[in-house]
Design a protein that fits this description.
With about 290 residues, the protein is α/β, with parallel strands linked by helices. Helix content is about 40%, strand content about 15%. The chain is built from twelve helices and eleven strands. The two termini are about 40 Å apart.
Amino acid sequence: MARQFPTFAQVSQYFTTEEAAISFLIDNGIVLRERKCDCGNLVKLNTGRMSYRCGIRGCRKEFSGFKESFFYKTSLPVSDILHLAYLWLCKMPLDAIVKYTGHTDKTVSSYLKNFRKLVADSMDLMELQIGGPGVVVEVDESKFGKRKYNRGHRVEGVWILGGVERTPEKRAFLISVPDRSSETLIAAIRAYILPGSIIYSDLWKGYQRITEELEMQHYTVNHSIEFVSSEGVHTNTIEGTWNGVKRNVPVRCRVNGAIDDFLMEFLWRRQNQNSLWEGFMRALQEVAYES
């Protein structure tokens, strides 16, 4: 049974008082009740000061209760940050969040960027690898960003390689690539598609060496003639995915260095679609920040 995304009424208490917000972080293991000092001594959290203080004579070190967490050295109260995160998870537009919370456009934009980075950092390669023995994976590449009618701000754009399993879960990967050469595409497929997978693609020459180099079964469809081959080969699933991805990547961010976290956010939301709030809490638990 799919988990329900919490209603605002169910979590609003964490957005209104700092005490409730911090207790929520502690109860969910995001802020630890105890942790080791650099000297090795186990130190308890002082919730009043939101700090740890070592009691060992000769050490007496005091450090923040938010050490290594997302909340370390943040400018807003924890309650405000949780509120912004909830609205972001609900996919509320930036301008609406600004009006709703009263924070500046710059502040909201900065935190949304940090949330995106957080969930991206919470994912590892194993989570992004798809396919497996006998699993059909459709692959395709798409160009994000272009200069419209030769007017306005010039956007060079970036190529994205994507793959989607032909399974009920439709697990996927999306990565930016420098080009569509055979070397680039084969290396990416080797990294993100598990051995034994069956690859479906169009006739782009960059895919021609899949069987030879990866020892995967590879079938193609000629899009200049048909959308689905007589053998049932098509790439409609991954091509349909591009529409969803592009709706979630602002045009100004469709460039190298800016697009990757948007791609990871899309995949993260897809993997956690039935437990977004819980998934965000796990990301807060698992990702450590330099102090």
